[in-house]
Write a structure and sequence with these properties.
The chain has about 100 residues and is α/β, with parallel strands linked by helices. The chain has helices at about 55-60, 75-85; strands at about 20-25, 30-35, 40-50, 65-70, 90-95. It is globular and about 35 Å long.
Length: about 100
């Protein structure tokens, strides 16, 4: 397999994934979301209003493999962490910054 994403950070390891990758940029009123399949192809990209977090569940339910989610840590990181962690099919949730310890 060959990585098809135009991403300079894509590596050989990406070709061996058995999960989808969800990147989330959290803002005050919305989240910008980008979901990649195991080959680096975009399967969903868009904006989710913060009042409509059920859309995260809808996205994950439409995937045929587990999903790993990453988002930037901010003052309300725990809300998004708890929400994503409760969705069946989300295998792992992490922040983009290593100085936030998500182990409680």
């Amino acid at each position: 397999m060959v990585v098809k994403a135009n991403n300079p950070f894509a590596t050989k390891a990406m070709n061996q994934q058995n999960y989808y990758s969800m990147g989330i940029d959290a803002h005050k009123r919305f989240c910008q979301v980008h979901v990649l399949d195991p080959h680096g192809e975009t399967v969903w990209k868009g904006r989710i209003n913060n009042e409509d977090y059920g859309t995260f569940t809808d996205i994950v339910r439409g995937l045929d493999l587990p999903c790993k989610a990453v988002f930037e840590s901010s003052t309300n990181w725990h809300v998004l962490y708890d929400l994503l962690g409760a969705i069946e099919g989300v295998e792992e949730v992490m922040t983009a910054y290593s100085d936030v310890d998500l182990r409680r």
